[in-house]
Amino acid sequence: MDVKVDTDSYVIGVDYGTLSGRAVVVRVRDGKELGSGVYEYPHAVVTDALPADVAGLSGRPGARLPGEWALQVPNDYRDVLRIAVPAALAEAGLDPAAVVGIATDFTACTMVPAKADGTPLNEVPGFGNRPHAYVKLWRHHAAQGQADRINQLAAERGEEWLPRYGGLISSEWEFAKGLQLLEEDPEAYAEMDHWVEAADWIVWQLCGQYVRNACTAGYKGIYQDGRYPSEDFLAALNPQFKDFVSSKLEHIIGSLGDAAGYLTAEAAAWTGLPEGIAVAVGNVDAHVTAPAARAVDPGQLVAIMGTSTCHVMNGAELREVPGMCGVVDGGIVDGLWGYEAGQSGVGDIFAWFTKYGVPPEYHQAAEAAGLGIHEYLTELASQQAIGGHGLIALDWHSGNRSVLVDHELSGIVVGQTLATRPEDTYRALLEATAFGTRTIVDAFRDSGVPVNEFIVAGGLLKNPLLMQIYADATNLQLSTIGSTQGPALGSAIHAAVAAGKYANVREAAAAMGSEPGEVYTPIPENVAAYEELFQEYKALHDYFGRGSNNVMHRLKAIQRRAAGSVFEPATSASAAAVEVSA
To answer: pLDDT band for position 67 (50/70/90)?
Structure first.
């Protein structure tokens, strides 16, 4: 390749998303992005049955999965390092010797059951066809029953940590998923040495050192004020869960921006990077994006909008906000309280609707117009007056993360008639996700946490109608991040700090962060129109989510009974013959 010769130093940021991993090469002195590479996970999200090629079944179907399961294959993550990182270097045209550090971010809470040397449990002989041996993706919601028990017991006992999470622990998080593993496959639980966030597992693969990052420990691992929930509490959930923290979870915790270790010879061979460069402590895709957007001051709300949305923001003071994903001291940058909220389904909802709710003639018309189906529906929907479709939707197709923290809830559209068209429903779904964000903003403000700015990153910022709807629904000026690789850029910023090029993340963000992209200002008449619709959304939100009508829960129970979805792990005998290599 054509190698550029200069005296600058560079870092690599790697962003692990739900369906792919993205690597970007960034110049340390100014944050200029010089090259990128993308690798789509070949196994994507495993929801129906374990992949036969990984389970070692020679073409026979792998173990079937009940509803609400979402697994991934950890070797897909290694392949991002083998493929996306070299591709980014090649596009940048750099001598790899100029790279001084690498950092990664991950979706969370995504959990890897691992052996003491970091080997994922599904790669251990005898466990390739056991569902609980695989990565549990953030959107794995099958541990809702365990989460309910954790919440009930914590509330009854008055556990001090519970208000830090808005009063409810999510089924997406470490403890609920770990308890599910114990109770549904105790043999796999016993075989596992570490219950590891994928954010930390991939760093372990890079540097050979297992360091738990402070971000996921605080937000997803119930680590507050230097401690986890007590053994007494865990034993009350299940006597076999008593030592979960000490035997499976607890480990050295690394500060954000620190070096977890240095690139091993094996990882250097995977990536084409120099052995011995700094590997930063792991982090979460949303939280690293705040520095990338130069949004590290109190009151700057950053929404990373993709398949789901995560909202992060710094605050000067500790407040307890109902339904939040957590508030952590230094969870985003040192010296401030980092707040997190989120919506479990956003882009996923739009994708679901275009796949299953749009007739073929619309797809044909989009193709004839040279547009994707999302662009085509957006064009049609943008011609409507606000409220013209007569619909209100609830954006709970993947449950509700904030502020209800209930993944038994489901989506709904009210107001459909025989005249309702696909573009009507599509716009209603766009608006529903904006109302979900408005609900989060209101919860922050009502709890004394100011929200003054709204910055958007992620793939959905490319939809101008959606951005304007969000600005109007929240009555906040909305700016988009200029970078198309916000999380990867944020990781690169952390890599520069870990490599000693900047004193801290704030300093690195000021030099390397992205300039704003597009700016959307609320339109007064639109704000008024959406306020009226939001009140209807709020009425439905409270009726189905907070009221006595728990029809959505009942329907989930009926669905499970009809499907016979009582989980049965693979038996030792059937699994013993399976041998899987990385």
So the answer is: confident
